[in-house]
Design a protein that fits this description.
By secondary structure, this protein is mainly α. The chain has helices at residues 5-9, 12-21, 28-32, 39-51, 70-105; strands at residues 55-60, 63-68. The longest helix has 36 residues, at 70-105. The termini are far apart.
Length: 106
């Protein structure tokens, strides 16, 4: 079943897994140590993240390491860009207003 990446990141545990493996690849056991849940539950989250191509697997000896697929995260960033522009415009307007108020106070 092909899943949408936004379904994958909608779950807080999967977002936490993404944060954990963003800098260093980790084994499922190492990832599971960071959660108060079973190793099987973490494996299910990893399977969903893998199906969405947000994480990739690499076999190293007998262990499988999971790491973040940065290029896929760009889809989320691209969607967020439209909102970022709105926020930046509003923050710039706030900066201008605060500067004007500060000048008028003098």
């Amino acid at each position: 079943m092909r899943r949408d990446i936004f379904q994958a990141v909608a779950d807080p545990t999967r977002r936490a897994i993404i944060t954990l493996i963003a800098l260093n690849a980790m084994t499922p056991n190492a990832i599971a140590e960071n959660f108060n849940t079973t190793r099987q539950a973490v494996s299910k989250h990893l399977r969903i993240l893998t199906e969405c191509e947000l994480v990739k697997q690499e076999q190293r000896g007998r262990e499988i390491y999971y790491s973040l697929e940065i290029d896929k995260m760009k889809e989320i960033d691209k969607w967020m860009e439209q909102f970022r522009k709105i926020w930046e415009t509003r923050f710039n307007q706030l900066d201008t207003l605060l500067s004007t108020l500060k000048k008028n106070k003098k």
